[in-house]
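[step 3/7] fold_predict: job queued, chain A
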Amino acid sequence: MKIVYYSFGGRYSDNPRALHQRLLARADVAAEHVWLAGAEHAGGFPAGTATVPLHGPAALDALASADLVVADNHLPAWGKRPGTTYLQTWHGTPMKRIHRDAHFTQPAGEDVMAKLDDDVTRWDLLLGPSDAGAGALRGAFRFGGPVPVTGYPRNDALSAPDAAQRRERVRAALGVPEDRTAVLYAPTWRDDDRFGDGPDFRLALDLQRFAQRLGDSHVLLMRLHYLVPDALHGLDAPGVLDVSHHPDVNDLYLAADVLVTDYSSAVFDFAITGKPVVSFTYDLERYRDVLRGFYFDPHEVAPGPVVRTSEEVLDALADLEGVRVEHKVRYEAFQERFCHAEDGHAADRVLDLVLAGRGVRA
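[step 4/7] structure written:
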């Protein structure tokens, strides 16, 4: 059996990576594994991993000859042959509206959307991270096929037996002392920053105030969205580390003591850890009414405080125990609604489902 993988512009990452690693660890399936690799990410694949260039005929040939295609994002048009299974894992529970549901239209938007819709016609199944997430994804892509609620394979690491040891290793590698509170700041991107006439990407969190108030006890881990990963190139602020290019976000979830985000799907994954979350929604009205809109209103579902200013973020970070106590009930309701399938065994569940469907013993 030939399996072809694709993730985020040709990276070795996300749900496809987790499924690949789990398959390599299992002894019940023999397969040829091939990854589509972006030129700038080719060095991020483990030694011995078979890759083909993402852009070019080799990628189309690999896809056309695959028995199973595993992707977490849209692929270019390719000739899918009868008998091929295309598993679309996607890459997060959407809080913000996506695909046909989003308000914002980028330049040449309809041409782009038509290409994305064409890819959806090849999908055989789409993973659901939760019941609520499955409904949002099915509707966004107008997908009529099966959406099994399996949880996300990439999130198994957050519940793995070695999670505590991995946390220690990652913090040591990043240079974060154990007596410091590690704050992971992971905002999503804004469509008008990238495609429209809006301002260039700007960081809403005041890094100087962070250093003044919390620099002796906290470290800020900055994780920008992969669509704007170099916006902080040359960042030099005390107590701030740019981890936008770290290869595995789960490392950062484990290393962090608290997440600060906005409308990113990171909140749904991070909540598996049970650690505090602060929602920094400085542009909520514009994001809700102009750019995207929401499937889930942050004020209604967020598992922690929803704040509007840098100073309010810092207030929350300075009193994490108070945040835990005040939002305990909301946090538990959030986990029940969005994390109910995340039990650490999603990869095996997905593989058993897909391989059984292909008549492969698993």
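[step 5/7] annotate
Residues 14-25 form the longest helix (12 residues).
The radius of gyration is 20 Å.
exit 0
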